[in-house]
Specification:
The complex is a heterodimer. Chain A is an alpha+beta fold. Chain A has 17 helices and 27 strands. The chains are: A alpha+beta, B mainly alpha.
Chain lengths: 638, 202
């Protein structure tokens, strides 16, 4: 029981007694964002530099976990400690990832079955844990910027994420201390933001090309109701694929220049990072060239927009093919739409804009920043679910749900694109004389054969009275609630024998695993103050070491022998301090190293890499290193 | 449950609104009374349905009863809202499509069609015509050709729908059954045509 508390006259209650906040989170393959909405005015939460995007990149060092820009900068020097694009593995089993393993920049742990695990920085982690680290960072950002406690969130997922991937996302949120109010499809969230902010009415297509996933949804917006008519996509198609074809071209070129070489996963990650820089550069510029520094040898690679377009054209056409299918599902022609909205960073690619415009026969809408629109919509829905709203989202089942029948065939019970909540019953009968039990196998997917779909759950209905084959009547009911959660029940109609199961995907984490992780994360959180400040000191130290390493890589020639020795000594001292457990020693070492690098930092600035860097301390240099490099190389382009 | 008079509110015992959804005194959401699909939208059973008006009514009902509107209310109301929303979703799916509406109406009027997949066309003329259309579709090698075949089928579907409405209007369920089957074939044909056109665009 809670006792009423009365505070002393004249003293105000603690400031953190303020109402907790529900946020909207766009957990993206490449970048993530967090936004809040009050009075239907959504706002992306930014860091001190005004950046809303948090790269979905995690750096794992001995004692620390870093998410975001710093982790992304570390790919260059410590690719083996960095995880990128983890969303691609969400809800995936070890076996279905093996097919595409070669194209993924991960070191996979193949020793276990079930959920796939990545090896990084000496740890072995599930995608759920890595995603939880990203969500923790977003939650921390929201709490820092708003000064309020954040416990609830609407998180967006690709429209066609299957049950396993959706549940993996929910598990990650739970690990990060967030209650998921609702998982909302990314295109739906984008439509919500457009509909409420721009007052859009009518039928719209949302073309959402993110880092790793592609979605297209058709929605009707009317009377404040947002109804999804159809949606589809590909969980393995996105801007990352553009990067991959660019990286492949660079590596082929390189092989012609210097001959074959053995590339480690870390080299592939570096090449992909360079390809990404190149692709982003070419959204604004006609041409450029970039260095590839792998296995100790440097090669230069140039690319122009026409060649890039040629390389990525097959991928772009693939997205349009999917869009056509989604329009077909809604029984609509491109010309019947009132507009098409672009979402996702990869839609900045000029070829994408051009082809989408041609396909839909109208210039696409980009009024709201394609990187931010999904998070804004998620925030609006978070507000609607906690404080009410005039808007209402009617979402659909992304994939068909069905049962295994004789011969390993699927009988679809709930077709894809069915508006939820929904309850659909179908009757089945027995196959053999005297059959007293029936195996109910629930599957998800569009294929005819059970083996080609995702298995969701199995249970047996027993206690069927023995009858001749075909005489028993078994009523199977599929109920999907507004959260998209499926419950399947089976009932023998004559006797009323009944079994029911709430579907938990067989690919997710087991309840035991999740409990263990939760306990670990709670223990983690309870770690005393001492532990926390020590960890923060270590983070500061690691950050400085990474920054200096990058700076040395670029401009070591600015130092004379003595200066270099002082800096190296300082780095060694700091490394030793970080290994230890004394916070003061670490902070002292940080200070000393900062002093030792002051002159170096000043000289680097004089070199005039970039006028914008003036006044920036060494420890933020690393974050900006990629940008000046592009600029230099862009000038050199042929 | 065919209560002529709305029952008393489960929460306060007060009078329920005329449409049976909310309590007039305490505002609590009432449990759904499961009528047929037409009744869920306040319509009487019949083939003639103004789809635009049906969808407006659907949106209005969802706005009032969707579970998202009851996130902070009593568990019992949340359960009822889930049932209401699922009921209207189910009903709309059926009533929006002329074929499914006709099938449902036939079942409601006691003239059940054989379960899906087992229907046969005993009308030879219809069968031959369907086969000819299939051949035409298989021979269509360009998007324009598929579009032309589909346009013919669409015109035929519109005509069959009109005949179907007339059959229901004069209560000729035998004719209605036959026309429903034809419409079903045409519907499937149009789906296949759409799919073929999609493939040709690749």
């Amino acid at each position: 029981m809670t006792l009423l508390q009365i505070h002393e006259p004249g003293k105000t209650p603690l400031p953190h007694a303020k109402r907790a906040l529900a946020v909207g989170i766009d957990l993206g393959t490449t970048n993530s964002l967090v936004a809040v909405s009050e009075n239907a005015k959504p706002l992306v939460l930014r860091d001190a530099q005004g950046h809303g995007l948090v790269p979905s990149v995690v750096l794992y060092t001995a004692g620390t976990i870093q998410v975001g820009e710093l982790a992304r900068a570390a790919i260059k020097d410590h690719p083996e400690r960095v995880v990128v694009s983890i969303k691609r593995l969400m809800g995936r089993g070890a076996e279905d990832i093996m097919r595409v393993a070669d194209t993924l920049p991960y070191e996979l742990d193949t020793s276990t079955t079930g959920m796939v695990r990545v090896k990084v920085g000496g740890r072995t982690l599930t995608p759920v844990e890595v995603s939880a680290h990203i969500l923790e960072e977003l939650r921390a950002r929201a709490e820092r910027t708003t000064g309020r406690e954040v416990r609830q969130a609407v998180i967006t997922v690709p429209a066609h994420f299957d049950d396993a991937a959706r549940n993996a996302t929910k598990d990650a949120a739970k690990l990060a201390g967030l209650q998921v109010l609702r998982l909302v499809s990314e295109p739906t969230a984008a439509a919500l933001a457009y509909g409420l902010d721009k007052g859009a009415q009518g039928t719209y297509a949302i073309y959402d090309l993110g880092g790793g996933t592609f979605d297209v949804s058709v929605l009707r917006l009317e009377m404040g109701v947002f109804q999804v008519l159809s949606s589809g996509g590909d969980v393995m198609l996105g801007g990352d694929d553009f990067d991959r074809v660019v990286a492949e071209r660079f590596l082929e070129e390189r092989a012609r220049m210097i001959g074959a070489e053995r590339l480690a996963t870390a080299d592939v990650k570096r090449a992909l990072a360079v390809a990404r820089t190149a692709r982003e550069h070419l959204t604004q510029q006609e041409t450029g060239s970039w260095p590839l520094d792998l296995t100790g040898r440097l090669t230069w690679h140039s690319l122009d927009q026409a060649t890039l377009n040629h390389l990525i054209a097959p991928k772009v056409e693939e997205t349009l093919q999917i869009a056509r299918g989604v329009l077909d599902d809604a029984k609509l022609e491109p010309g019947q739409l009132d507009g098409v909205v672009l979402v996702g960073g990869a839609t900045r690619t000029p070829l994408v804009r051009k082809r989408v415009g041609e396909f839909f026969g109208r210039p696409p809408l980009t009024d709201i920043d394609p990187d931010e629109v999904v998070a804004l919509g998620a925030a609006l829905q978070a507000e609607a679910l906690t404080r009410g709203s005039d808007a209402l989202l009617l979402d659909v089942t992304p994939l068909s749900l069905g049962l295994e029948t004789m011969g390993g065939l699927v009988e679809k019970i709930v077709p894809r694109n069915t508006t939820i909540p929904v309850a659909i019953a179908q009757e089945f009968t027995t196959y053999q004389d005297g059959q007293t039990a029936m195996a109910i196998h629930v599957v998800q997917g569009e294929r005819e054969l059970v083996s080609e779909n995702r298995s969701l759950a199995r249970f047996d209905l027993t206690g069927i009275p023995p009858m001749t084959a075909g005489a028993a009547r078994i009523r199977v009911m599929f109920a999907v609630d507004a959260d998209g959660l499926l419950t399947v029940s089976a009932e023998e109609v004559m006797t009323g024998t009944r079994q029911e199961i709430a579907v938990k995907p067989s690919y997710g984490l087991s309840e035991t695993e999740l409990t263990a992780m939760l306990r670990a994360s709670i223990d983690h959180a309870r770690g005393d103050m001492e532990e926390r400040v020590l960890r923060e000191a270590r983070v500061d130290g690691e950050r400085l070491l990474l920054a200096i390493e990058s700076a040395l890589r670029a401009d070591a020639d600015l130092l004379d022998v003595t200066e270099r020795r002082d800096i190296d000594d300082g780095r060694d001292r700091l490394r030793t301090a970080i290994e230890g457990t004394d916070r003061t020693t670490i902070l002292d070492a940080v200070d000393a190293l900062n002093t030792a690098t002051e002159a170096f930092a000043a000289r680097r600035m004089d070199r005039g890499i970039r006028s914008a860097l003036r006044g920036v301390a060494v420890n933020t240099l690393a974050e900006r290193l990629e940008a000046p490099e592009t600029q230099q190389s862009g000038g050199r382009g042929r | 449950m065919t209560a002529m008079k709305p029952p008393a509110c489960w929460s306060c015992g007060g009078t329920v609104d005329a449409d049976g959804l909310f309590c007039a005194s305490c505002g609590a959401l009432q449990p759904p009374v499961l009528g047929d699909f037409f009744a869920r939208f306040g319509l009487t059973p019949g083939f003639a349905v103004d789809v635009a008006a049906l969808e407006r009514r659907y949106f209005e009902l969802q706005r009032r009863m969707h579970p998202d509107r009851f996130a902070a209310r009593l568990p019992k109301e949340r359960e009822y809202s889930l049932q209401h929303a699922a009921n209207v979703n189910e009903a709309l799916q059926t009533l929006r499509s002329p074929v499914r509406r006709a099938e449902y109406l036939l079942a409601l009027l006691g003239k059940a069609m054989r379960s899906s997949g087992e229907e046969t066309v005993d009308d030879e003329e219809v069968l031959v015509h369907a086969l000819e259309m299939r051949e035409e579709l298989a021979d269509a090698m360009t998007r324009a050709a598929v579009e032309a075949v589909a346009a013919t089928a669409r015109a035929e579907a519109d005509q069959v729908t009109a005949e179907l409405a007339a059959a229901f209007a004069r209560n000729d369920l035998t004719a209605a059954g036959r026309l429903t089957l034809r419409l079903k074939y045409l519907d499937k044909f149009l789906d296949d045509a759409r799919e073929r056109r999609g493939r040709l665009a690749a």
